Amino acid sequence: MKTKKMSEIFIHLDETHSTNSYLRELITKEKEQPEGTVVVTDYQTAGRGQRGNSWESERGKNLMFSLLLHPDHIPAGKQFILSQLISLAIVTVLQEYDPHFSIKWPNDIYWKEKKIAGMLIEVDITGSMLSNAIAGIGININQTSFKSNAPNPVSLVQITGKKHNLPELLEKLLDRIADEYSGYSPEKEEEIIQRYKNLLFRNKGVHPYLCEGEIFNASIEGIEANGHLILKKENGSIRSFAFKEISFVI
Ligand code: BTN
Question: Over the chain, what HEC string results?
Fold first, then answer.
């Protein structure tokens, strides 16, 4: 197993606390690892999600992996580019199985109104540029029932009605992520934002959002380079929102 155009270091663990934490410990204790190093596991005892949430996944049923990148050509203020490139890669691969996948801003992957995948990207910054990025990705593949309190999970087997080969899928995903990542240049930013916007969940029409206890209807106007979501309220006012400021009402 290897990533196209990147390192061939591939660490498979039967079980670990969290692949992101494992990779973090590896680069802290063992010094720098090559770009493209991948840690994948069958089971996490302390899987981590966004906003301090946990990430639960049945043993051996799903994909859980972390990829090490060295995005030292990307300014710290533009770290959202990584979320966009990885989200685009995941949706592109999943769309081979069904057309109804989208990116729920900022970086959840949805099928219709349900969540199939999430990512936790943890970066180090040196000066004004990114240095390390640990991109941790969890995708529900062969799990058929969900017991955790995650609100609206779905898996690929529930969508397609058949079981999927995890190593094959992982290889496809890593290749696609490598393609997106190595194809990035500052001149391509507009095109990346446009592709990301075209795949956004609820990118058409007016939908309800929750901000500071208030629910309001708005439409997505765009995405700023820092990843903030630009919404247009029904009264015509336009405002951008940072990640923790707003949530979708689903
Ligand atoms: C989220 O949607 O809240 C993000 C979930 C990220 C889960 C993945 S699974 C592999 C990697 N290791 C972790 O501990 N978390 C990420």
Answer: CCCCCCCCCEEEECCECCHHHHHHHHHHHCCCCCCCCEEEECCECCCECHHHCECCCCCCCCEEEEEEECCCCCEHHHCHHHHHHHHHHHHHHHCCCCCCEEEECCCEEEECCEEEEEEEEEEEEECCEEEEEEEEEEECCCCCCCCCCCCCECCHHHHHCCCCCHHHHHHHHHHHHHHHHHCCCHHHHHHHHHHHHHCECCCCCCEEEEECCEEEEEEEEEECCCCCEEEEECCCCEEEECHHHCEECC
